[in-house]
Amino acid sequence: MGLFDRLSRVVRANLNDLVSKAEDPEKILEQAIIDMQEDLIQLRQAVARSIATQKKTEQQYNKNISEANSWQQRAQLALQKGDENLAREALLRKKATGDAAATLKGQLDQQVGQVDTLKRNLIALEGKISEAKTKKDMLKARAQAAKANEQLQNTIGRMGTGSAMSAFERMEEKVLEIEARSQSADQLTGSNLDSQFAALESGSDVDDELAAMKAGLVLGGSVSQGALPASGQKTSPAAKSAVDDELEALRKQIDNL
């Protein structure tokens, strides 16, 4: 392979790559519609010219047919008058105009076919342009959605590896830690309150029991005052032992509070 061929291939490859990268789907679609509309205008002009030519040929054909009929009538008139030479001349003119009319008829038929073909092509092109416009709007919307999604994915990718996302995640963890500490403090505060109220409730029961015992002692002392031993009278060992046991029981009860 020659050096020139290799350089040519490299240049064409680079140009194709540049063109592919430079192609914007939205702009290309718009330009394609513009080109199709320009083709439609040219086709309409061609149809108009063909119709005009057809009309002109048709007029010429009708004129030759009319002249041929006129020469036919003149030939008959000359023959009726006995002038065969004049009748022959009229027939020669009729033949010339008839031949011209036949030629024009062939051209006219051909032109009618061309006009019909151009009209069908014009209708087909109009339908394609209408369909292309609908597809253009749809493709433009899809292209815009694809570009937006690509930008979003690129943004998400940059956020996932960047410092901003890392800082966001750290702050999220810190908020969760603060919430956990707050919940723990609430639980501790609630348990302290429960223990304090429990202490108050138990203390109230003890106070009530002590008050009842005091009232019982006072009432018992007043009722059994005459049964107590007199001054200087010795208490029996059995009574002393019973008192000591009762005092010991009270001390244990108080210690257990």
TrEMBL record:
InterPro entries xrefs: PspA_VIPP1
Keywords carried by this UniProt record: Coiled coil
Superkingdom to which the source organism belongs: Bacteria
Residue ranges of coiled coil: 115-158
Keyword Coiled coil part of the UniProt annotation: yes
Family: Belongs to the PspA/Vipp/IM30 family.
Protein name: PspA/IM30 family protein
